[in-house]
Write a structure and sequence with these properties.
By secondary structure, this protein is mainly α. The chain has one domain (3-346). Helices cover 82% and strands 0% of the residues. It has helices spanning 3-20, 22-28, 34-57, 61-67, 70-97, 99-121, 128-158, 169-193, 195-202, 204-212, 217-247, 259-285, 290-312, 321-346. It is globular and about 55 Å long.
């Protein structure tokens, strides 16, 4: 393996660890509504920390963005905005059909769209063998995600969780309608959530511009996220702001006893920013297939890390033996996908 491949995978793995830990802080929130947590955490993740880091590491970052055609910057911002909408659709879809099925479907769509479109954009430049191996790796990753979702459904059934009644009559029709609506939201979330990685891929000219001004490639990857974050936070302000006003949950920011929620939200935003930044640096180091291979590896490993934390929190304590067996197989398949994708990336160097 080349040095750039090893460093790229290492950074991507570290980013996945931070991403997989995000659920811990979300579970600890007590008095903040989702809109309180999301508005504050994403302010930290998308605006404050990126701006501070860029100012410290890339003093000419704003000039580099101005050097790039306005059309590219607007496309990246628009993709970021769609990513922000996708995060809202995620919450709605999960609420409709449950965490296990919803998360598995969303991650499957995110993996295929988020890794596939950047690969298609570079298709002619990718060696034939690398194409085949990488597509196989993405396919294996999707199988692993599907097995993870299957394990979650088996766990819920084993614990007696209510399932939609699809037998007959009015209840069946209502259940089917709810399931279809929920699956539609999850599909929408998967497609739009992948726009963050597609926006990062489109923002490559911005990194090239700041590199021409003397920035190192690893540092330059940060500036690719900034317009993506601008668009993403615009969507967060829109949807969270409406919810804050409609439900009057903006009052949570001034209530006594919410100090720990404030700290957790800031911590959540910090983890989110670090995860994205590490992935961005890793993808830049992985070269031609960075935003395809790196993204699939990032998602696969973040799922495994989240699983580990789930075990630590006792989420699988009462799971059936069958659900655990499927879960372990799914984790093994995801690890195999990471190995295949790493090999595919090595074929481009």
């Amino acid at each position: 393996m080349s040095v750039s491949l090893i460093s790229g995978l290492t950074l991507t793995i570290l980013g996945a660890v931070f991403a997989g830990a995000l659920g811990l802080l979300l579970r600890l929130q007590q008095r903040y509504a989702w809109e309180n947590t999301w508005l504050l955490s994403q302010l930290v993740a998308m605006i404050l920390l990126p701006t501070i880091a860029a100012q410290l590491l890339l003093s000419h970052w704003s000039a580099a963005i101005r050097m790039v055609p306005t059309s590219i910057v607007l496309i990246v911002i628009a993709l970021g905005f769609m990513w922000g909408i996708g995060s809202v659709a995620f919450a709605i879809g999960i609420d409709r059909i449950g965490l296990s099925l919803g998360y598995a479907m969303i991650m499957g769509v995110v993996t295929s769209v988020g890794a596939g479109i950047p690969m298609i954009r570079k298709w002619d430049a990718i060696p034939h063998q690398a194409r085949i191996v990488t597509l196989c790796g993405i396919g294996v990753c999707l199988v692993g995600v599907a097995l993870y979702g299957r394990a979650g459904l088996l766990r819920e059934r084993g614990e007696g969780a209510p399932l939609p009644d699809n037998s007959s009559g009015t209840i069946a029709k209502a259940g089917s309608k709810v399931m279809i609506v929920g699956l539609s939201w999850c599909l929408l979330s998967g497609i739009l959530s992948a726009c963050s990685n597609i926006g990062f891929d489109f923002a490559a000219p911005i990194a090239s511009a700041v590199e021409r001004m003397g920035a190192k490639p690893l540092s330059a990857s940060l500036v690719r996220w900034i317009p993506v974050f601008w668009g993403g936070y615009l969507a967060v302000i829109l949807f969270s702001g409406v919810s804050l006003l409609r439900k009057r949950t903006w009052e949570n920011f001034t209530k006594s006893g919410t100090g720990l929620d404030f700290i957790r939200a800031v911590g959540l935003g910090t983890l989110s920013f670090v995860a994205q930044w590490l992935y961005g640096m890793g993808a830049s180091e992985l070269g031609l297939l960075g935003t395809s291979v790196g993204y699939a590896v990032f998602l696969a490993l973040s799922i495994i890390v989240a699983l580990v934390f789930g075990f630590m929190l006792g989420e699988w304590k009462h799971a059936t033996r069958r659900s655990l067996h499927v879960l372990y197989v799914g984790a093994g398949v995801l690890i195999a996908a990471v190995v295949i994708l790493a090999y595919g990336s090595s074929l481009t160097t």
